[in-house]
Amino acid sequence: MSEIITNNIPASEPERQYYFMDACRELLREKSEEEGRKLTYLTDTLGCQMNAKDSEKMNAVLEYIGYEPCEEGEVPDFVLYNTCTVRENANQKIYGHLGILKNQKEKKPSMKIALCGCMMQEKDEVELVKNKYKYVDIVFGTHNIYKLAELVYENIFTEKRVIDVWDEPDKIVEDLPTKRKYDFKAGVNIMYGCDNFCTYCIVPYVRGRERSRKADDIINEIRKLVSDGVTEVMLLGQNVNSYGKKFLDEDISEKDRIDFATLLRKVNEIEGIKRIRFMTSHPKDLSDDLIEAMADCEKVCSHLHLPLQSGSSKLLKKMNRSYDKEAYLNLVERIKNKLPDIALTTDIIVGFPGETEEDFEDTLDVIRKVRYESAYTFIYSKRTGTPAAKLPDSNTKEIIQERFDRLLEEIRQISSEIAETKVGRTAELLIEEVNPRDEKMVSGRLSDNSIVHIPGAPSMVGSYVNVRINESKGFYYIGDRI
Ligand code: 5AD
Ligand code: SF4
């Protein structure tokens, strides 16, 4: 980028990014005046809560530099795809979208297309984009999303495609603008990366090593969110239970080295916060201290997502999950003893290499014993570069599909039995939105994460109301304000 380097570009962050944001704003203002119209953007986010959070940060940068959100049906001036690569079909989806964008770009050549996120941390995918999708303007990964404005500036200024993917993060830049989807709830990163290396999973390769943020920074961010009107926070990390093992700042003092249970207690003390959620917990690190903290902290929601992946001890070992069937069931028992009303949800993979009918029966057995409120179910997807990709497997697609269908049926049956027990209960609902299909109804979530629709008005969005659950509809409930 040597030709654009002029004097006065700050070397330190976030000042450097503000410099480029202001520079982009100027360029885009000129372009907007030239064309006599506003410039628009569209962000498409695939994958997990981490990606959703990253997109919020990038959307804020795009708006700061002068793009406005694109209206439905409009062709945007800037398209950002925040990709996921956890399963093969996520990659396919992106290439499908790129095909559609090619046509749009032929009609509107000034359109910019940017790809970022986990899929762009894979060298083969970047090569493919480089060679086959030449109309993509900007490519970057998970470690340098904070540089968005700098990359946009470089692309506009040089009129050349910009590809900037880093193998490792250099630093985490935090004080950049952010834009939230909801005024009253927000995700807060407490850690980045993952060190678990489950053998099927690509995340540790694309999100890098585990690094926790300092508790004071997290607390200050939440206090600021409260002053902006937020009452519910979701503490985010690939594996929140190992919060505090490794910090971003290695020289952190002993007193700042706190674990997740202690962090939860600190967040619980923040005035103005009414609900605390967190995602995702790894069963191997879920301590009795944490169960105790969840029981003591009245703001911690009555929901725990506890990925099982498989109920077979043999497969769990092959997956490198560091627990077996018995340890998982024992953990669930300890949780239920302390938190009898907790809603448990999970992730399950079917068709991991070498899965036998007996292994699958073990998964069904755990499901019947734990009785999850709901579960995310996945067919194993081979990810090149992970250890499991080299394991032999003789299961056919048909066998795996048949098991997957049986799994879904088992989960559906248990979920609906649990749902029926909730009918007639009363609980506090945080109203999140006007129901898009019926404007006389509003929808929200209970502490246990159940979705409830009640008659209401737009002014109720963001408020907490007591409701009675009248009817279960499978994935949601119908209720009334009381
Ligand atoms: N194939 C299928 N599912 C996977 N997951 C992660 N990697 C794979 C894979 N290769 C699932 C796990 C994880 C969730 C986020 O995605 O269940 O908990
Ligand atoms: Fe992937 Fe396992 Fe890390 Fe979760 S804990 S992100 S499944 S490696």
List keywords for this structure.
482 residues; binds iron/sulfur cluster; 13 helices; 6-stranded parallel β-sheet; alpha/beta; 5-stranded mixed barrel; 36% helix; binds 5'-deoxyadenosine; 19 strands
On the 0 to 100 scale, the average pLDDT is: 94
State the end-to-end CA separation.
62 Å
- Percent of residues in helices comes to 25-40%
Rounded to the nearest angstrom, the radius of gyration is: 24 Å
- Poorly predicted runs: none
- Biggest sheet layout: 6 strands, parallel
Globally, the shape reads globular
* Number of helices, where a helix is a run of at least 4 consecutive DSSP H or I residues: 13
Number of strands: 19
Relative strand content: 15-25%
Give the structural class.
alpha/beta
As laid out across the biggest beta sheet, the strand order is 2-1-3-4-5-6
* Ligands, deduplicated: 5'-deoxyadenosine, iron/sulfur cluster
Describe this protein's structure.
It is built from 13 helices and 19 strands. With about 475 residues, it is of the alpha/beta class. Helices cover about 35% and strands about 20% of the residues. The model has no long low-confidence stretch (mean pLDDT about 95). The strands form 5 sheets. The protein has a 6-stranded parallel β-sheet, with helices on both faces. Helix 8 (about 260-270) runs parallel beside helix 9 (about 290-295). It binds 5'-deoxyadenosine and iron/sulfur cluster (SF4). Iron/sulfur cluster binds near residues 196, 197, 204 and 238.
